[in-house]
Amino acid sequence: MNKKIMELDSIEVWDGNMAAAQALRQADVDVVAAYPITPSTPTVENYAGFHANGYVDGEFVMVESEHAAMSACVGAAAAGGRVATATSSQGFALMIEVLYQASGMRTPITLMQVNRALAAPLNVNGDHSDMYLGRDSGWINTCAFSPQEVYDLTLCSFKIGEHLDVRLPVIVNQDGFMCSHTAQNVMTLDDKTANDFVGEYKVVNSMLDFSKPVTFGVQTEENWHFEHKAKQHDALMNSAKVIDEIFAEFEKLTGRKYNRVESYKMDDAEVAIVALGTTYESAQLAADEMRKEGIKAGVVAPRVIRPFPLEEIASALQNVKAIACMDRSAPGGTVGMLYNEICGALFNTSARPVVSNIIYGLGGRDMTINELCNIYKELDKDAKSGKRNGALQRFVGVRGPALNYYNI
Amino acid sequence: MKLNRGCDMSTKSIKDMGWDELIIGASVYSFNGEIDYNPADVLPENRDYAETNSKTAYVGDWRVYKPVWNSDLCIDCQNCWIFCPDTSIISRDKKMVGVDYDHCKGCGICVEVCPTNPKSLLMFAEQIKNEDALTQWPEKTKGK
Lengths: 408, 144
Description:
Mean pLDDT of chain A: 97
Number of strands of chain B: 6
Strand content of chain B: 15-25%
CATH architecture of the largest domain in chain B: 2-Layer Sandwich
CATH class of the largest domain in chain A: Alpha Beta
Low-confidence stretches of chain B: 1-6
Number of strands of chain A: 18
Shape of chain A: globular
CATH topology of the largest domain in chain B: Alpha-Beta Plaits
Low-confidence stretches of chain A: none
Structural class of chain A: alpha/beta
Radius of gyration of chain A: 21 Å
Largest sheet of chain A: 7 strands, mixed
Oligomer: heterodimer
Order of helices and strands of chain B: EEEHEEHEH
Mean pLDDT of chain B: 90
CATH superfamily of the largest domain in chain A: Thiamin diphosphate (ThDP)-binding fold, Pyr/PP domains
Number of helices of chain A: 12
Largest sheet of chain B: 2 strands, antiparallel
Shape of chain B: elongated
């Protein structure tokens, strides 16, 4: 634990970036190497402030790029320390090569990712392009929808990634600006309680252990590469169990319950929106509106997108008649990720809902309650007629003629 | 807390291991077991290298030109031993022994740093035999 304690009120007013920085401070991270980029800059800035004011015993490394930031993180993690960084968008894109190194070398690193659109055109606002870019990089991917959840999931991320059955890096996603710059009440843990929950770092094959010299980052060709990638995949798949255990432990400590699939009013729902990020909360308000009009609306959000909770999400959507999978990322010539994942999850079950794919919110375009209500109304039509009434893929919230694709 | 999460190579070769038996992250150990001594105090031939140490890996076929050592001219200054990036200069008790051609990649740094005149290490094409190379050694360069 850091020598200097910061006294916190039991409820603080923090935005997502401050929540992230405070959780990093309480986790007693050995090395934070980061390069600031909007909208994750205040995570790094706040943390650097804590460091400068003596609240952080660990090292803060200023680097010349995000590629260097993640490289420094991999080095520090291989040396045997608890490590974290933060980035967004272009910075995340520059990290990509090293993200695969981090997961392949099985170095537990926490990455605070504040989601932002990818250029071009250049845009600093929130969408999920960067989240989707990293989804196959072998990292555990969690999604926080509010500053409270950023705080909670960040504390959990260290316990998950560093668990001896996991040893994988973890991304904690949050929406740029809508979460990162929106101040809300955050229930805090005192420094000791938070630090005790995260626990002592467990060193595995440390490069600084001179009694057992070890090499990281070796070359393996056709003789071993497949086995190592298989081992890595197995650890990622089995991390679901550890995530459940740590969420349960966190609930015991705080009363706040997290699930790998979150759902709202799904018990009797006939139509459902599946979405990530802050849209999950907006859709809850829209679902309440719809229920006043007699439409049984519900919301589902994967809290963890890797390892993908395929069984749990299939179970959550078994009894609905129509689903809108909402992807906040330009899908680049096909359906969006959530559409693919949800259809893939349902296909081997007996459920046969009508599923559509909504592309929305690119570059920070607002998704309003009104628009979400309209999506529910379309779903209600689909549910009643038992077939889709429009194209499979629709763009919502964009100016100009309607964009519709795929008509099977 | 310190833990070794990995395989036991003393009982099974890494070549026979399935994905479940390999060390996570494709990390490789240098030595069998834990070492409680300073490896620098023990000669390489006496160290208990693990199978995954590159000591037994042959990479000499990377080389196009090789350094040939002329023991008649060598003054045992150890420059080549210090500068070799692949610890391929074999020296014992500060006396030059020869070149480890299993690991030397032919970079030529040893030749660059050799201070004698003529040099005691010179690069020759890989296919030239060392005894033939020694017959082609240049004379001392005047005025240097």
